[in-house]
Automatic annotation (TrEMBL):
Biological source species: Proteiniclasticum ruminis
Role this protein plays: Catalyzes the reversible adenylation of nicotinate mononucleotide (NaMN) to nicotinic acid adenine dinucleotide (NaAD).
GO biological process, one term: NAD+ biosynthetic process
HD/PDEase domain residues: 214-341
UniProt-listed NCBIfam families: bis(5'-nucleosyl)-tetraphosphatase (symmetrical) YqeK, cyt_tran_rel, nicotinate (nicotinamide) nucleotide adenylyltransferase, PRK00071.1-3
Keywords: ATP-binding, Hydrolase, Iron, Metal-binding, NAD, Nucleotide-binding, Nucleotidyltransferase, Pyridine nucleotide biosynthesis, Transferase
Entry protein name: Probable nicotinate-nucleotide adenylyltransferase
Length: 394
């Protein structure tokens, strides 16, 4: 038999997945297509939807397709799902069958980066659902890999189906309708079970996440910022809960790779601050995005305080200013002039903001490092504010 294999997270399964399977079946004259959901796929974020629920949705989606079935091999195996291990096991169980591994053009381009791609090619043929927008040179390394292994991909020219499980999850989390992109029974199941809805993380959940995803010394710094921010809140007022939350989360993504931060920023439709020329501040932008879209925190005070805690900005709210200064003066900081800045922060918050901005910009300039445009505009703004205030008091 000729059997197609379509793997993925299927989180959730959508009409695009069914289209890929139908196109492969028609063009390659397959006898059957197996949908193979991952358990813990490499390089993917954990999901609040369980593997069992993803399998259930697959069964619902395929219930009207007798030539399609679900294999729970990778789910039952648990652990990270590597394709080369799966196809080797399938060949061992069914040595007389020919397997066609079905992937999209975007996956083919990066196939050479997969774990043991030669091992995959040993046991399966590869069928590529072609998509427009990929220049030929993008797949040069994968093409060479295939040549070296005496293989040729089976290419299937199809209509472009622009459906993404990630986009569906985002739309559902934001309360938007995405059900037209799903098989009817899957849409009904998601509505019934209230899957992918956005429930705000509690302070305890965020605290656990932060502690697990930053280095130990970074967490000590974060605790210091929380302490300093709450002391400033006692002096100047403000929403203590929002201030504590922003202080806890301001560096939550600081220890992630720049590639992760950029992917997150682009995924949610933003451009990197300063066009990505200042990688040291990307964690702030990405952190605000992560808080809003993954952790479902919708408090603008908190989101802006996280987003601008490294750069500042003109017309900051009280919460933003408190987090911005607390990050500078927490008890673990020991740079020259920090004691003066701590004293100033207790006397005049705007003057402390201006002093911190000025000091940071001078420091970056001395190192020939880029200064974010938003920081320069913030310094200009607070200089004008304080000058006007001085004139008014005279």
């Amino acid at each position: 038999m000729n059997i197609g294999i379509l793997g993925g997270t299927f989180n959730p399964v959508h009409l695009g997945h069914l289209y890929m399977a139908e196109e492969a079946m028609k063009n390659l004259k397959l006898d059957h297509v197996i949908f193979m959901p991952n358990y813990i796929p490499p390089h993917k974020e954990n999901s609040s939807v369980s593997a069992a629920e993803r399998v259930k949705m697959l069964h619902l989606a395929l219930s009207d397709h007798p030539d399609f079935s679900v294999s729970t091999f990778e789910v039952e195996k648990t652990g990270i799902s590597y394709t080369y291990e799966t196809v080797e096991e399938l060949h061992r169980r069914h040595p007389l069958d020919t397997f066609f591994f079905i992937i999209g053009e975007d996956s083919y381009v990066n196939f050479w980066k997969w774990k043991n791609p030669e091992g995959i090619l040993k046991y399966v043929e590869v069928a590529v659902i072609e998509r427009t927008g990929f220049p030929k040179e993008a797949s040069s390394k994968t093409d060479e890999l295939f040549r070296q292994n005496h293989k040729k991909a089976f290419r299937i020219l199809s209509e472009t189906v622009d459906i993404s499980s990630t986009d569906i999850r985002i739309r559902l989390k934001e309360g938007k309708d995405a059900y037209e992109l799903l098989p009817r029974k899957v849409a009904e199941y998601i509505k019934e079970k209230k899957l992918y809805l956005c429930s705000p993380w509690t302070f305890q959940q965020l605290q656990t996440y932060v502690k697990e995803h930053v280095k130990p010394m970074r967490y000590v710094h974060i605790e210091g910022v929380v302490e300093a921010a709450l002391l400033l809140s006692e002096l100047y007022g403000g929403n203590r809960d929002a201030i504590a939350l922003a202080a806890l989360c301001h560096d939550m993504l600081k220890d992630h790779e720049v590639s992760f931060l950029l992917e997150l920023i682009h995924r949610y439709g933003e451009m990197p601050v300063d066009d990505g020329n200042s990688p040291q501040i990307l964690h702030a932008q990405a952190g605000a995005i992560y808080l809003e879209h993954v952790c479902c925190i919708r408090n603008e005070e908190v989101l802006n305080a996280v987003r601008y805690h490294t750069t500042g900005r003109a017309q900051m709210s009280l919460t933003e200013k408190i987090i911005f200064i607390a990050d500078y003066i927490e008890k673990g900081r020991n740079f020259p002039g920090v004691e003066n800045l701590r004293k100033l922060a207790g006397e005049n918050l705007d003057q402390a903001v201006l002093a911190a901005l000025s000091g940071t910009i001078k420091h970056l300039e001395s190192l020939n490092k880029p200064v974010a445009a938003v920081s320069r505009s913030a310094m200009d703004y607070y200089e004008r504010v304080l000058q006007e205030r001085t004139k008014h008091e005279q």
